[in-house]
Amino acid sequence: MELRQLRYFIAVAEEMNITRAAVRLHMTQPPLSRQISQIEEDIGLQLFERGSRPLRMTEAGRIFYTQAKRLVSEADELAPLTRRLAQLAERIVIGFVPSALYGALPQVIRAFREAAPHIELSLIEMFTLEQLGALKGGRIDVGFGRLRFDDPQVTREILVDERMIAVLPQDHPLANPDVPLTLADIARETLIVYPSSPRPSFADQQLSALRDHALEPARVHEVRELQTALGLVAAQVGVSLVPESVDGLRVHGVVYRRLAETHVSSPIIMSRREQDEGETTALFCSLARKLFRVE
To answer: Which of 45, 123, 253, 286 could form a disulfide with 234 if both were Cys (CB 3.0 to 4.6 A apart)?
Structure first.
């Protein structure tokens, strides 16, 4: 079956009228009708109910329409995606969540610039879910995020499973380093989570850290970014949970403490297109594996 036949079927399915579909396709009605009949003969199923006015698809037709629409959409994206990737042959674009900058990502960037000074490197801050669409659309080549997602067009690797720690106002009773700090202690406080959108996000990992232990925070305060969360902790609005690498970020009025629970963590996940076997991407990913894992 040819791609043009799928386009014929989609036009008829969307117009629900052979004449209007033929006008849309800039062809006459008889050959279009023959094409639809040929498709039905090829797959051995009736796609439209015979004699219905207006046309109505059968259940098989509705299934075929969904799959045909997906295939045509992917085919239409193929040429522009190829052109964009060809233009990026001497360039690599990295998408990242902000918290990745507190880990080994800056070292990876420096190491890549030293290893490939002739390659232009661009960085774009974006949420994990935004990275998924950007990878598939060719707008970025590698993404660093914290959320797990499944997509057959994207390869993911967990580089490090970072321990989560608590951020507390410096004068808070829980800030005492001589007293063990537990998730149950955190649950009794106002939990400041970020980012508030889009969801799911790291905010859901913070909440899941408690819910995985059958705990619910007394109150939840959502903010847009890490810096705001830290500022509100310093203002004694509440407490927060952050990746351990954030400990290197000095903020007046807050203290960082490890939790008694050692298995509460947030991964840094590197993602790239499944079929991207370019040397530039391979070099960057190799450096990331090496430097994140010896952090």
So the answer is: 253
**Last residue in a domain, options 86, 110, 142:** 86
Query: Could you read off the pLDDT of 69-102 as tens digits, one per residue?
Result: 989 888 888 877 776 666 555 789 999 999 999 9
Domain that includes residue 123, residue range: 91-295
Among the listed residues 291, 38, 32, 15, the one whose alpha carbon sits nearest the alpha carbon of residue 144: 291
Per-position DSSP letters for 168-214, written without gaps between them: EETTSGGG-TTS---HHHHHTSEEEES--SSSSSHHHHHHHHHHTTT
Tens of pLDDT, residue by residue over 37-78, are: 999 898 888 999 877 777 889 999 899 999 999 898 888 888
The interaxial angle of helices 3-15 and 18-25, nearest 10 deg, is: 130
pTM, entire model: 0.67
Verify that 266 and 244 share a domain, yes or no: yes
- Cα separation of 207 and 188, whole Å? 13
In terms of C-beta density within 10 A (0-12 exposed, 13-18 middle, 19 or more buried), how is residue 126 classed? Answer: buried
pLDDT value of residue 88: 53
Nearest to 147 by CA among 103, 210, 93, 195: 195
Give the CATH number for residue 242.
Answer: 3.40.190.290
Quote the CA–CA distance of 284 and 295 in Å, as a whole number. Answer: 16
* Helix, strand or coil, per DSSP, at residue 246: helix
Give the number of domains in the chain: 2
Domain boundary among 58, 86, 114: 86
